């Protein structure tokens, strides 16, 4: 990364974008932000903001010129805009592109061999972002009502033990099956509610099939020198 200096963030005002922008502002990298023309999001005055038409490659290309790295953090149905981002990055000569692909390990080696990349890219397999997932209920915890929904009995019970210890009281526990959660996600998607994707992800990741467990691929924490965070302290900061 030493060869890279200029970084452009897309989706910097979202759940993931806000903490990522904060981290870059504390780093030696020169960071910029790309937003839609109609966006009303506000950012620190020290950060250059480029507005573009997300359907127009040439419009986005102008913002990406002189950028070394582009990091996309768009979510939901906006993830479909990324093909335009990639085309613009190629046209602008961007050296590395990080798509909004955080969480599951989705790379298929056989498919990749058939489709050699035209640009250097990285995908960060993080699993669910813990503090965000706890706050928005993705893990099944409702912090306001002190209730938790466990899928297939789930290992979220380990988190619940820490939550009850920190909170000093018992929480209300509700049980559902992964089949129920996945069915509800499919039903919502069929009705045009794209938030159903969250249910599909939760049902697959936290159900008995444990599709969210990517530990067999190994972890980069040690190689990057990242300190191990304390789950109890993290939860104390939330409650």
Automatic annotation (TrEMBL):
It comes from the Eukaryota. Gene3D superfamilies: NAD(P)-binding Rossmann-like Domain (3.40.50.720). The keyword Transferase does not apply. The keyword Oxidoreductase applies. GO terms for molecular function: oxidoreductase activity. Keywords: NADP, Oxidoreductase. Residues 5-107 form the NmrA-like domain. It holds the Pfam family NmrA. InterPro entries: NAD(P)-bd_dom_sf (IPR036291), NmrA-like (IPR008030), NmrA/Isoflavone_reductase-like (IPR051609). This is NmrA-like domain-containing protein. It comes from Penicillium canescens.
